[in-house]
């Protein structure tokens, strides 16, 4: 057969030698259990809202790839309006990524497999918590079963159970030419996803404070009722599971970390798709690299509980002030990574990044463009204010792993946190009794 064709049964298509990359299309179904569809039957409104979030995630891929970055303001406003419409009129069930993002899915199928598979894990773990027929003291065992199945049935596709502190360093995206483009150029759409990454964990936490009985309906309803307020005054960073669902993170740190790793993959994928300096094939190579770096690797299971709880007693029914701003766990991780990388980047041998670099980092981590912020990616901005900054041009190429930078960051994490105590398990021996919410929470004065 000629180099330009490949036979797939009766179908003949262009082969890889003409630039087409074929990815395996096998997929896995969710694990059967007595809890299946408990979320759908018990909390129908919230179940459908989750579907609206999935619509937005799927749409965003094609929107970024198929529209010029120069049109970002118009596209961002139009896209956010579509997301708000989906939130007002959510679908009956959650769509797969391919339904609303078919263009990117044809080229980068493994990205969609990773997202859809983790969305299934979301639904499975919601179902387990929400099924009134699974005793409270059996929730942990059923959740562990779900985590095991998730990790075992899609090797290389399942997100890691290690904390984001480790997997973000392994991804090695800080020095790439795309990092922060999405949050800076598409702030409204970006902040819709920051809202979504608030919503997912607080729904888990609403169940964790209320248990199996009828208190669960009240707690989930009251938490979801905050959504319009949060949409009007959205978080300015990606909230991590340890912040927004500390009790569930103690019940299943593996599941909590899996969700953080998915949410970070969303942001990295959007940055890459927004970047106009690479072809689709180059973007696929880079995403394949990131997907692999943030998937399960031997030893990750030993790291699952290596995180602290900033707000262990948080109430999910309250949209607290600490949730709104750009400072938090994700910001801390990013600044640590910059410090760990800097000795290899410094033009003058300094061990710590100068104030100008730190300030550009602070501005870049905020959605939109701030006064004094240099346009472009994170490293473009830092390089502009630190002339002579060293970056290996090879490591910035698509699909290339910046090994030295990653090793330096992982060594930094080991120095900082290698000896930290595991976060303690949570007592699940008896059904919790929820307390009245600490305070009503609406939009901030600024949002009003």
Structural account:
The chain is an all-alpha fold and 448 residues long. It has a domain at 33-331. 54% of the residues lie in helices and 2% in strands. It is built from 20 helices and two strands. The protein has helices spanning 38-42, 44-66, 72-88, 97-100, 102-107, 109-130, 139-153, 164-171, 181-185, 187-210, 215-224, 227-232, 241-244, 246-251, 253-274, 280-293, 329-345, 355-364, 378-385, 403-417, and strands at residues 5-8, 11-14. A two-stranded antiparallel sheet has the order 1-2. A hairpin with a 2-residue loop joins strand 1 and strand 2 (11-14). Helix 8 runs antiparallel to helix 20. The longest helix is centred in the middle third of the chain and has 24 residues, at 187-210. The protein is globular. The relative contact order is 0.13. The model is unreliable at 1-19 and 440-448 (pLDDT under 50).
Give a topology summary.
Elements: E1 5-8, E2 11-14, H1 38-42, H2 44-66, H3 72-88, H4 97-100, H5 102-107, H6 109-130, H7 139-153, H8 164-171, H9 181-185, H10 187-210, H11 215-224, H12 227-232, H13 241-244, H14 246-251, H15 253-274, H16 280-293, H17 329-345, H18 355-364, H19 378-385, H20 403-417
Antiparallel strand pairs: 1-2
Mean pLDDT over the residues: 91
Backbone CA Rg: 22 Å
Shape: globular
Record field, number of beta strands: 2
> What spatial order of strands do you see in the largest sheet?
1-2
Low-confidence stretches: 1-19, 440-448
- Into which percent range does the helicity of residues fall? 40-55%
N-to-C SSE string, H for helix and E for strand: EEHHHHHHHHHHHHHHHHHHHH
Write down the oligomeric state: single chain
